[in-house]
Amino acid sequence: MVNNYYLLTDEEKDLQLMVRDFMNKEVKPVVAECDEKSEVPMEAVKKAIGMGLHCMNIPEEYGGMGLTARMMTVIREEFGKVDAGFSVTLGNNGLGSTPCMVFGTEEQKRKLADIVVPGGFSPFCLTESSSGSDAASLRTTAVRKGDEYVINGSKCFITNAELGGIYTVFAYTDKEKGTRGGMSCFLVERDRAGVSVGKHENKMGLRTNTTADVVFEDVVIPAANRIGEEGEGFRIAMKTLERSRPLGSSTAVGISQACIDICVDYAKQRIIFGKPMSAKQAIQFMIADMDIQTQAARQMCMYASTLIDQGIYDGRVGAAVKTFCSDTAMKVTTDAVQVLGGYGYSKEYPVEKMMRDAKLYQIFEGTNQIQRVVISGQLFK
Ligand SMILES: Cc1cc2nc3c(=O)[nH]c(=O)nc-3n(C[C@H](O)[C@H](O)[C@H](O)COP(=O)(O)OP(=O)(O)OC[C@H]3O[C@@H](n4cnc5c(N)ncnc54)[C@H](O)[C@@H]3O)c2cc1C
Question: Which domains does the chain have, with CATH numbers?
Answer without folding.
Answer: 10-116 (1.10.540.10), 124-231 (2.40.110.10), 235-379 (1.20.140.10)
